[in-house]
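Posting here for the record, re: adenosine monophosphate.
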Amino acid sequence: MSTFNAPKGTYDLLPPDSATFLAVREAIARPLRNSGYGYIETPGFENVELFARGVGESTDIVTKEMYAFETKGGDRLALRPEGTASVLRAALEANLHKAGNLPVKLWYSGSYYRYERPQKGRYRHFSQVGAEAIGAEDPALDAELIILADQAYRSLGLRDFRILLNSLGDKECRPVYRAALQDFLRGLDLDEETLRRAEINPLRVLDDKRPDVQKQLTDAPILRDYLCDACKTYHEEVRELIGAAGVVFEDDARLVRGLDYYTRTTFEFVHDGLGAQSAVGGGGRYDGLSEMIGGPALPSVGWALGVDRTVLALRAEGVELPLPTVTSVYAVPLGEEARRVLFAKVTELRKLGIATDFAYGGKGLKGAMKNANRSGARYAIVAGERDLAEGVVQLKDMESGDQAPVGLNEIVAELETRLG
Ligand code: AMP
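Prediction output follows.
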């Protein structure tokens, strides 16, 4: 214990659990790297205005959950609550879209911050791995991203997740639907805040989780009935391509997402073992976002998968990832001279790529062997004065308990052979 604890709504990633986090990030990244996505990293904070315009002034993320602050220099900044606006900002700033190679395909991994009410699966600091394909309107691109996310989850061994799919229409048909929905919502018995939301962003009301609101929405107009022909054709094509890839999905006509910038394809990955915070990832097409932040028209699509919730989903399904052994060899020196000699062997082994650790702090044999055990090492090498005088070290197989002397000059090669 110290005087300080992690801030509310945050937690620390500690070994050995942290290894699972790294493995999840890697599993999500692998299919992206394999499909032409390049890695991008942007700052943890941005001009607050980027999110206000890019994510939307009417979203909870911007109005309630953003960590916004003014710097000593008078800049208005915000910790990033999501990745898409930053990635698009960076791509535009670097003119990646002008390099003549559209779509620009990027992936990222990092920390995001939202001032939310903390609960299981919902934190104020969380991790996402995301992907964005910028500057192309092609149903195959939407399909590609959904297929890659499915592949990532499956490669982790997850089974109890579902893919929900919808189309939110475009700037032709969405306004017509929006007006119809608004008309409908005005006739309902809703609290003042919800009525206000209905005026600013009526689609968000469909996302209201409260049962008394949901009950009134049974007969709400459905966007599907308002889609224009172009949006319908586009959506059909996305559905066909995903289906042809053998990826199972569910049409969810009610699916809207918390961010303002989505158009057409919208999807969410939900896991049935997570309770209230069931969304493990989500995304969609955002054809208007570039223009909203002052760029040219660049139809784009992307997703972000939550690392924290994916780890919770693995736990819920009882999936144990095959994590690499942390330490293969543990060296135990007994005495001053042995410390120098064994430490040199440790460095040699490490240079060969063999994961090796060392008993620091001049512990006695018993304590050091306990640490060797805890490290999970396959072998221990032990040496005292008498061993060194004979030019050997003791090589102990930690599984069988067998121990035998090996020449000091042979030990590195011997371990290399044994560990394959
Ligand atoms: P969103 O940008 O809200 O669509 O979030 C995408 C994914 O990030 C979600 O499906 C979650 O897995 C994850 N996520 C979003 N907000 C949080 C949070 N407060 N705590 C943990 N994970 C989150």
